[in-house]
Design goal:
The protein has 487 residues and is of the alpha+beta class. The protein has helices spanning 6-58, 63-74, 148-183, 185-195, 213-262, 268-299, 312-330, 346-363; strands at 80-85, 91-95, 108-110, 113-118, 121-130, 139-146, 307-311, 333-337, 341-345, 369-376, 381-386, 432-439, 449-456, 469-471, 477-479, 482-485. It has three domains: 6-97 and 110-172, Beta-Lactamase; 214-278; 304-485, 2-Layer Sandwich (Heat Shock Protein 90), CATH 3.30.565. The chain contains eight helices and 16 strands. A hairpin with a 2-residue loop joins strand 3 (108-110) and strand 4 (113-118). Its main location: membrane.
């Protein structure tokens, strides 16, 4: 069922609440009023019975004097009738004379008072035993009060109540609609701001201003979401631009070579040589595309890691073997120390460490040493890579782990391809998580270094030695004062 207008729903709830309250008040007032009138009638009848008893005691044995005084007492009240019965049920005295003892077949007793209706009229009665001063048996006295005026009053009161209830319900509905409309104005402003958002206006924020506390958290969360969307959109735009730039160079090379070869007729050997060159360029282009697909799958959680127990020293030694010839050509030594075991995906671990070594070899001067050290701290495993490369300027620290980002702009114009330090997939396999931190050179450090830290995923922040962890989106990295989590 499609939900209706929130203003209408609030108005209806307001109407229902007012109607229920008025009903409760009306029922309570009706019952209390009836009880009050019943008590007043019982009090009046009780006072008459006391006066009748007092007259019976003072009149002695003269029945005529007794009846005369009772007539004087009761005859002045047209709504009051009395019947005095002997023990055999015959009447001793009645006022008015035509009065008879009431039939209690349809009567009910409430608060000690008999109450019944007869032919559209309502009566209340009290009965008592009247002792005579003579030795005669006591009389049974019935005092009956006609309370039809009370019944008419309550009938009129009920009609007024239903009229007031209907009018109040309609008025409360109108007032509820106005109150709900006014109360939901901040929501309307939020809606207008959200509707005006586009890819070019993600930097706009909804001002908090004088908004209700109930909406303050919503607006704060919405503004935070806009900030995350803006950051993701900027990174996506940069990533798209970087992809285009990375692919432009090999495609441009292929086109240039092909145009040169086709410019004139050449020997078969020349065609074969250039086709081999084109194949090499195509293979490199295929590798770039495969890497980008891997990054996209990794960022969207489409790669399911297969956790196995790994010996990090063995992983480092294997990768040293892959880069041994490149390191020898550049006159760089590779050095490893320490050991630790973790549960992680072997392919992802190889990719992370391989990318770190590749970047280190690219920027380490000839004749220097790249040091990789492994430290097992019990609750976490730390892999530290240190090389004497150039210091990274502070303005680049926030982006060094972005995909394809390079500190040196000239590197974009060279034929070097890769995803940069950002090509570090999360090692969230089994119970371990991976963080990558760039630490500038400190007073006791010879060189700046990268530190990869792996520890159980149930730890929500980095150990104190690395500062305070700051969860972030799909990139891995940061600097000493704030590392981004890729988990």
């Amino acid at each position: 069922m499609k939900p209706g207008s929130l203003t209408l729903r609030l108005s209806l709830l307001f109407v229902v609440a007012v109607a229920v309250v008025l009903m409760i008040v009306g029922v309570a007032f009706n019952e209390l009023s009836r009880h009050h009138f019943r008590a007043l009638d019982a009090q009046a009848l009780g006072e008459k019975l006391e006066a009748i008893n007092q007259i019976a005691k003072e009149s002695g044995a003269n029945p005529e004097l007794l009846k005369a005084r009772w007539h004087t007492l009761l005859g002045a009240h047209p709504d009051l009738s009395a019947v005095f019965l002997k023990t055999d049920g015959t009447p001793f005295f009645a006022e008015p004379p035509q009065s008879a003892a009431p039939s209690l077949a349809q009567a009910t007793q409430r608060d000690g008072v008999w109450e019944w209706e007869n032919e559209g009229r309502m009566f209340r009665a009290l009965t008592a035993s009247i002792s005579l001063p003579t030795a005669s048996p006591p009389l049974t006295a019935w005092l009956v009060l006609d309370v039809t005026t009370h019944m008419h009053f309550f009938a009129m009161l009920e009609r007024w109540f239903w009229g007031v209830l209907l009018a109040s319900t309609a008025l409360s509905g109108a007032l509820g609609w106005l109150v709900a409309k006014n109360g939901l104005r901040p929501v309307a402003r939020v809606t207008q701001t959200a509707a005006s958002m586009s890819a070019g206006s993600l930097k706009e924020r909804i001002p908090l201003g004088p908004v209700p506390d109930e909406l303050r958290e919503l607006i704060t969360a919405f503004n935070s979401m806009l900030g995350r969307l803006d950051d993701s959109f900027v990174r996506l735009s940069n990533f798209s631009a970087d992809i285009a730039h990375e692919l432009r160079t090999p495609i441009s090379n292929l086109r240039t070579h092909t145009e040169v070869i086709l410019a004139k007729k050449r020997a078969p050997e020349v065609y074969e040589e250039n086709l081999s060159s084109n194949l090499e360029e195509l293979n490199r282009l295929s590798g770039i595309i495969d890497g980008m697909l891997f990054l996209a799958k990794s960022d969207n959680g489409l790669i399911v890691p297969e956790a196995v127990e790994l010996d990090l020293r063995t992983v480092i030694s294997k990768l040293f073997g892959y880069y041994e010839f490149l390191a020898e050509d550049k006159g760089i030594q590779l050095q490893a120390s320490g050991n630790a075991s973790i549960f992680a995906d072997s392919v992802m671990i190889d990719r992370v460490v391989s990318n770190l070594l590749s970047n280190a070899l690219r920027y380490t001067p000839s004749g220097e040493t790249i040091k990789v050290s492994i430290h097992d701290h019990g609750g976490r495993v730390e892999l530290r890579l240190e090389n004497p490369g150039p210091e990274i300027a502070p303005q680049h620290l926030d982006r060094i782990f972005d995909r394809f980002y390079r500190v040196d702009p000239a590197a974009r114009r060279r034929r070097e391809c890769g995803a940069g330090a950002g090509d570090c997939p999360v090692l969230d396999a089994s119970a371990w998580r991976y963080y990558l931190v760039y630490i500038p050179r400190g007073p006791n450090d010879l060189h700046p270094h990268l530190r990869a830290v792996i520890w159980p995923t149930n730890m929500t922040c980095r150990p104190d030695s690395l500062g305070t962890a700051k969860p972030g989106p799909t990139r891995l990295g940061g600097h000493e004062t704030g590392c981004h989590c890729a988990g």
